[in-house]
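Posting this for the archive.
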Amino acid sequence: MRKQKKLIIALAASLVATPIMALTSTQSAVAIQQQVQTERLVSLGGSLNAQQAEQTKQLLGAANVPADRVIYVDGNTINRFLQDGSNASTSVYSSALIEKQAPGFGVQVQIVTPQNITLVKPVTYQNAAITSGAKDVLIKIATVTPVTGEGALAGVYALLEKSGVQVDQKAVKVAEKEIKIVEQVKQTAQTTDNQVNDNQVNKIISDIKKEVTVNVTNNTEVNVTQIVQNVVNNNTEINLTQENVQQLEEFASEFAQTEAAKDEATITQLEKSIELNLDRPWLDVLSSIDQKATVEELLAMERKDYSDASLYHPIIPALFNRFYQLAEQKENMQTLYSHTFIVEKMLPNLTKEAKQALNQLRVYIYQYAENDEEMRKSTFESAGLPYVSLRDAWIERLNAANNWAAANPTLYEIFTKVALSSGFALETSMYQESQTPEGIQVEVRWDSITHANLQGLYTYVPETQALTQLDQISGNVVQSPAAFDFKAEYGVEVVNGYVPMNEIPANYRVGEVEVEQSSAEESAEQPMEETTEQNEPATEVEVTEPPAEGDGTSTNE
C-alpha cells in the first residue's frame, strides 16, 4: 500500500499582520513588523524539484515573490515543531502563500488544488490559523501531488523561527490538536441526517474559542465544562458522543493557555472569518455559508430592490427575476449560476454594490441547490463513488478555473473566449483542450456525477482569431458569436467589456506555454515516494482520488 506524503503547508505570511505567537520579552510587536516589511511570504515543500516549485508558485500567484521571502520546509523542520517522527526522508510537497489584508478581513483560506488535498478542508485550516494568532490574511494553499492535509501549520512556525521569534509551543500543539478533533468529530458524531460536515464542526470549535477568549480577557474563571455544554446546547443539530465532548473540553482548556485566548482581537477575527461578507470573492463567500433555506423560505424572504441604475446594471434585477421564476417552478439553475460569472467578466467595472448583489444571488442559488443534497448523496452511493458535497464540488470547480488562470494564462484566454461566447463559465463547466490540424479544439462539459454531458464543441484558430462551434442539431460548423446574447435570454443588453490579461500568439499551439496545465496532472499520477516505515506519523493515510463533481442546481432532478 502506498504511504501518504506528509502535507506541509506553510501558512507563512500570516506573520505580516501582527506576530502570531507569543513574543520574547526582548521582541515587541513593532519590532517584528519592522523585521518583515512585506505583503506576501511563501513556503514551498522541500521535495519539489525546480519545475514543480515554479509550477506551484504560479498556482499560488507567487511567481514574482523575491527569493528572500521564500522558505523551503523539509521533514526535519516538521519534526522540530511537531515532534511527529518526520525526518529527512519525509516527502514534503505542499506550499502556501499568505497575503496581508485590510483590517476586518479576517482569515480566509483558498485551497487552490482541492483535488490533491483529500482530508483537511479550508475552514479547518482557517480555524487553526486563528488559534495560532493569524489576523486579517488570505491564505492560498497548493500541492502538486495528493496529500491528506495534516500538519498544515509547520511552515508558519519555521518562518517565525527564521524571523527570530520564539515559537509558542502551546499554540503549536493546540492548533494541531484542533485539526485532529475536527476529523474525529466528523467520523463519530451524528446529525439529524447522519451527516456532519467541516463547517458544522468548525462552528462549534469557533464558538468555544470565542467563549474561552471572553473569559480569559475578562479575567474570569474558565469553566470549560460549562462552556462546551453551552456551545453544544446551541448546536442541537449535531449529536456529539461523550468522547467528543471530552475532547472539546480538553481543547478548550489548552486553548485558554495560548496567546490568542488572551487577545480580544481573536473574537473579532473569528467572527469576521465565518460571517457572510459579500464583499469577498465568491470562493470565500461560498466557504462561509452555514445557513440552510428551503425553496419556500427563499421565495418568502424580502426581495431587495436592485432597480437603482446608478448602482446596478439592469442585468442584475433581471438575473434575480429569473432566479425567482426558476425557484417557483423548481427548475434547474445550472445556467443561471453560470451566467453570473459571464456577467462579471463582461462588465469589469461593476460597482461594489452590484458585485455584492451577484454574490447574494449565488448564495441563493447555492441554498436552493443544497435542498437536493440527500439526492446527490444517494446518486454517489448508487454509482459506488465516495460522496462529495455540493459545496466541495463547487469549490473544486472554482479552484480549477483559478488554476488555469495561474498555470496556463494563454490557454485561459482561449477558454475565456469560449465562455464569453457560449455562456458556459469556466467556473462551472469542465474545459478540455486538444490540438487539431484546424486549430485548438475545446470541449465544454457539465459534470453530473456519473457522466459528463457535452455542452459544446469549439475550435479556435490563433492565426485568424476565429472561433467556431459545432451545431449539435445540424452537425455543421458555424461561426461563434463574440459574446453571449443576454438581451435574447433576459431582455437586457450587456456589452462585452472584457479586457484580456494576456495576448494569444498567432503561432500558439497547445503545450507551448510557460507552464503546462498537464504538468500538475502528470505529477499527481507519478508513483509517490514512501516515508520510512519507522517513525512514520500515525496520521498519514492512503490517498484516494475524489470523484467528479455533480450538478446539484435543481430540486427536481
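Residues 169-188 form the longest helix (20 residues). Confidence is low (pLDDT under 50) at residues 1-38, 513-557.
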